[in-house]
Amino acid sequence: MRPALRLHALAACIALACPAFAAEKATTIPAKAVEAATALRDKAMADNTGYEFVSGLTTEVGPRLAGSAADKRGVEWTVAKFKAMGFDKVYTEKVSYPLWERRSEHAAIVAPYPQNLFVTALGYSAGTPAGGLTADVVAFDTLDALKAADPATVKGKIVYVSTHMQQQKDGHDYGMGSATRTRGPVLAAKMGAVGYLLRSAGTDPHSRTPHTGVTGFTKPEDAIPAGALSLPDADQLERVLKEGKPVTIKLDLDVGFKGTYEGENVIAEVTGRKKPNEVVAIGGHLDSWDLGTGAIDDGAGVAIAAAAAKLIKDMPLRPDRTIRVIAFANEEMGLWGGRAYAEAHAKDVAKFQLGTESDFGAGRIWRMTASVKPGARGAIEQIAKVIEPIGVAYDPNKPGGGGSDLSQMHAKGMAALSLTQDGTDYFDYHHNANDTLDKIDPKALAQNVAVYATFAYMAAQADGNFGSAPDAFKGDGAHD
Amino acid sequence: MRPALRLHALAACIALACPAFAAEKATTIPAKAVEAATALRDKAMADNTGYEFVSGLTTEVGPRLAGSAADKRGVEWTVAKFKAMGFDKVYTEKVSYPLWERRSEHAAIVAPYPQNLFVTALGYSAGTPAGGLTADVVAFDTLDALKAADPATVKGKIVYVSTHMQQQKDGHDYGMGSATRTRGPVLAAKMGAVGYLLRSAGTDPHSRTPHTGVTGFTKPEDAIPAGALSLPDADQLERVLKEGKPVTIKLDLDVGFKGTYEGENVIAEVTGRKKPNEVVAIGGHLDSWDLGTGAIDDGAGVAIAAAAAKLIKDMPLRPDRTIRVIAFANEEMGLWGGRAYAEAHAKDVAKFQLGTESDFGAGRIWRMTASVKPGARGAIEQIAKVIEPIGVAYDPNKPGGGGSDLSQMHAKGMAALSLTQDGTDYFDYHHNANDTLDKIDPKALAQNVAVYATFAYMAAQADGNFGSAPDAFKGDGAHD
Prior knowledge:
Chain A is an alpha/beta fold.
């Protein structure tokens, strides 16, 4: 939360007698619930449900590109799995989005040194004409350099932008990498480029696996062919460019928009015993890119949420409030599942006790932050105390954003956590063919499940709420 | 050398007054040459010629599959480069071999869980019929288990063999891995299998890069479609197989034999000042598999030999004997260049002072072994003393085999070294798409160049020979 905005919100609340900031009773978690959560945490740390879930999903379904036949099988698999896990309710909600297909993709240096390049098309890229597109390359070190360029130098060319990301625990270089991937193609198209390539937004310099991901194109008529080169291929192209001769590339991307698809968010619930209409929302996204099997992005996220809810369901008594697991549709091409969910449920936002989504791999959670009302900070500190022994530090000075799809509910006013995972190697595998089950450490995954189970149970048992209300957290800085 | 064979050879020599074992003067290296070699070593350690060579070859030519247009460009590039480096002679020698082409390759699990698998066809594999080949899988843990199987269980099936290799400094698991790749398909074909897949002969469990390599098929009519799965894909298939349901795979390999090709060994020489017809032979192979750019296999080998010879050429005086650099054609599909070379030059084997080839990547050399006459052991020890400070230990108890192609000249009787590189990560990248320039550490490459330059110069300056003679080293155990 930004100081200036906090004061502004506080002033508005005082004027309107806003309940979140009134002198009401602070939210607390009863001692008995803290005790039960501690036992739940320890059980979860030794439990394999999450790993079995993600192993099953990625093995029996595999890659799940939004709108593909495999995506549909993924929905069916998850519905069946949620039912087999014994949840109280299992249902789906429709999510409509543009269908985009990848059929084949090739790139090659034509001159001066003919050779193939490992490329992948980006989401919402246009296809090339049949037989491919051949053009000279104009290269830029950064997106800013492209922005500053004279459009005449770009017109008719394939633009290449080389952004270098480094490994980091919080993966912050992805801000720059994803901007180069999403905004770069749109900018290049506006400047008259006929194609766009970037050095993949990834961090493994030794792997020939290009990283896909969505562009900012929203209409087929605005899109140009856009792809990413693997990092060794980007190095290769850069070595060739460095010689100063004109470099010609042929792109052959058989991809593109194909009408509209109706997918589904898949939802499972442990129904609350006392306040069934009040909901702790947790989840991940069920779709994945098609190059890997979507293990760390985001089979792990769905598995963490599902396993946490299952462990809560297996307790002697149902929790006071409902635990809702949401496996979102088509996060990858623009939070389609999350936005549809928020649209449909915004009117009930005050019923969302607390929520967050897991979508940053399967590394251990090391930090919790929260966007809650001041009167619920004590309850957050109670949660922090239970998860501190399993490696999670609470930072009270940062907002909690709710994760990728649930950020949309947070934007509507849902109180939210961020449970930050160790993403040091996340961008080695993110959106590329190497996103497979072997990247998940079952023990690290169990720690995630333990954190989710603990917080979700404690929030469900709290005396009081965390401040969810329409627009309650506007300007908290979570997604600036 | 095996003890029994050693006695046998000795007995034969005594009877025939074999010069190698007679009481002739021991071979030694003059003090002045040792001094010059020490300075040469130090210069080479700080020299970048080798790295520049392999960077140029892999960037300006890229992959060089034997018989491909790129292979031809590789020959032209190397001839031009050798000339630009100022060697005294640059020439080529013809090498004829069956042409095998890779056009496209796909594999997928059809049932029970449809999904693509990352596959690469193996050298000399047959293509599948148009539209692909679909069959059930029968799996074996080892090649021995396949050997022991009832052919009735294999007939009409796709055989899958899962051999697990581990990283090792000397890469000895490759014996098992390459047997599964070369002998497995031949055995499976004889048993009536319609296709063959193996878990790649590689050591990076996290990379979706299947490892290609040659099979033992020698005639198109004996070949069946054969491929390798990446290790994560092999894991995936094994998880599916473990469930016990029938597993159906579709293989679509558009590959195959296509007549005969005439390639070239590319040769450069620093002509000896005193004994130009006596030759120290060093080299690597110029062809590579087509998935990577052939940096560690074996652009590095050619670069090491070429740079070593260049450094010797740049000395104030030409060496006493000739230094010959051989960039062999088509090593990958069965030592075609090496065998052609040995056939052509066997009659002159006694003129080959000493030789060895670099073909195990670009890691530092840590061990030297030698197959030389007893009277040349002192000279080998002199060489060992000069290269010991840069990390090479001399093991007098093992034979020296001469490397891959030059093993064929050693088999004819050429005295040979083995200069063993650190291959700990070699089989992470060997024969797969990740064999690219970034895998080469310029400093480690320079150490290789230093070792080659040092030994080649000292051998060229030796008083006496190392025992090369027709069949002089038969049964030394180098290639048992």
